[in-house]
Design brief:
Length: 201
C-alpha cells in the first residue's frame, strides 16, 4: 500500500479484501519551482537583430523541471520586445531588462541594443551654384549597410574654404561669401559625404 508519486495529477487508490473494496483519492502536485536560470545572463545586439533567451526552472536540489509555462517580458518594449518563446528583437538603442517568470519565480537578464552602424552618408543639394550672399540648406542622408535610413544621427558639417562659403556645423546651412569653389562635407560615425558648390559674383 505504499504510494509513490510519479507525475503531477490525481489518482484513485483502491484496496480490495474478500470482495470488498475501499478507495482513496491522491493528488500529486508538481515539484515546486525554487529558482529560474536565464541564459545568456546579458547580451548585446544591433537594432533590428534578435537574440534567443532560454529559461530553466529548477527544484530545490537544482534539478531542471520540464513542462512548465514560462512567461517572458521586457522592461521597455519600445527598445526591445520579446516573444512567448524567449526571442528578443532590438527596436531602438538602449538597455532593457528581460524577465522570465515560472510559477511565481523570476530571473532577469540584461539586453543592450546598439545603433545600427553607419555605412554611407549622402549630401543632398537642390543647387550646385550660388551667388554671393545667397544661402542654401543641405541635407545629409545616413544609411546602414542594408539601405535603411538612420535617423537622429549627429551630423558635423565642414567647409573646405570658409572664405568662399561657410556652413553651420550642426545645421548644414551654407552661406555664400565670395566667388570660388568649395566642398561642403557632412560626417558622422567616421563616414562622410560631400558636395561641391560654386559661388559666383
Amino acid at each position: 500500500g505504499l504510494v509513490t508519486a510519479v507525475a503531477a495529477g490525481q489518482v484513485t487508490i483502491t484496496a480490495r479484501v474478500e470482495g470488498k473494496s475501499g478507495e482513496a483519492t491522491v493528488t500529486v502536485e508538481p515539484v515546486p519551482v525554487i529558482t529560474v536560470d536565464v541564459t545568456p545572463a546579458s547580451a548585446s545586439i544591433v537594432a533590428g537583430d534578435s537574440v534567443q533567451f532560454q529559461a530553466t526552472p529548477r527544484a530545490a536540489d537544482g534539478t531542471p523541471l520540464s513542462g512548465r509555462t514560462i512567461t517572458w517580458s521586457s522592461s521597455n518594449p519600445a527598445l526591445a520586445e520579446i516573444s512567448a518563446t524567449g526571442m528578443a528583437k532590438g527596436k531602438a538603442p538602449g538597455t532593457v531588462t528581460i524577465t522570465a517568470t515560472v510559477d511565481g519565480r523570476s530571473c532577469t537578464a540584461d539586453l543592450t541594443v546598439t545603433p545600427k552602424p553607419v555605412a554611407s552618408v549622402e549630401v543632398v543639394s537642390t543647387r550646385d551654384t550660388l551667388s554671393v550672399g545667397e544661402s542654401l540648406q543641405l541635407v545629409a542622408i545616413v544609411r546602414a549597410d542594408d539601405g535603411t535610413i538612420l535617423e537622429d544621427r549627429e551630423i558635423e558639417w565642414q567647409t573646405s574654404n570658409s572664405s568662399v562659403a561657410t556652413v553651420g556645423e550642426s545645421t548644414g546651412l551654407v552661406q555664400a561669401i565670395a566667388a570660388g569653389e568649395v566642398t561642403i562635407t557632412a560626417e558622422t560615425d567616421g563616414h562622410s559625404g560631400s558636395v561641391v558648390i560654386t559661388v559666383e559674383n
